[in-house]
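Can anyone check this?
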Amino acid sequence: MIEISSKSNEHFRRWLDLASARGIKKHQEFILMGEKLIAEFLENPNFKVKAELVHEDLKSLTMTASSLKGQRIPVFKLPKALFNEVDVIGTHYNLLVLEPKEIPALPASPTQGLEVVSPLGDPANLGSLARSALAFGASKMILTEESCNPFHPKAIKASAGTLLKLPLYRVGKFTEFVAGNEDLYALDMKGENVATFKWPKNIRLAIGEEGPGFGGLKGLKRLAVATQGVESLNATVAASIALFSYSVVPK
């Protein structure tokens, strides 16, 4: 076990940097946080474990995990004050430093089932959307250039770990992706009611940020969730309703 006590330590400074999308991209690492998420991950580790962080009241998990048997994973012990700075979500539990997988470019192939398109820049919204997407049978999530990093700690927390399971693909800017994409529909404030829409088996559904949505784009096919008494719903709440509507329609 390697003890770290200084804020100037290069490892500690790098871990602090992993609280941002920029830091994750720069160092090619992200931190998995949360007792339940870590327990599920250790049952079937599908990402490379680079390190484990603990403080004086925590025992190492990687040293005894049968799924990691034979792997030499460095365990770093930090004072609680330093540990809490890295534990940005406040889990007070072991932290795992993982290596993110490269997100492949979307192949030029026909749409397969329900594909969710996300230009969401807010990590919590992206995580919530991923959770609903997996729950209602999405085959993949397509991240546009505007999307936040899916390995951001707030995104993974909001997704309840589904961002580590759902197939992810990347494309360029949303406006460029729209062009010539006949299977693409956007969930917006105004559009055809998702409750009465004749859902095709293969469809790409784009979810925009609250407020601006997709108002400035022309020629975009739009769907909407009908509401009463309120102008609009939270973007991810509306997305969940739309995804559920797709899931219950016989294909």
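Reply from J.R.: I decoded it. The chain has two domains: 2-99, 114-247.
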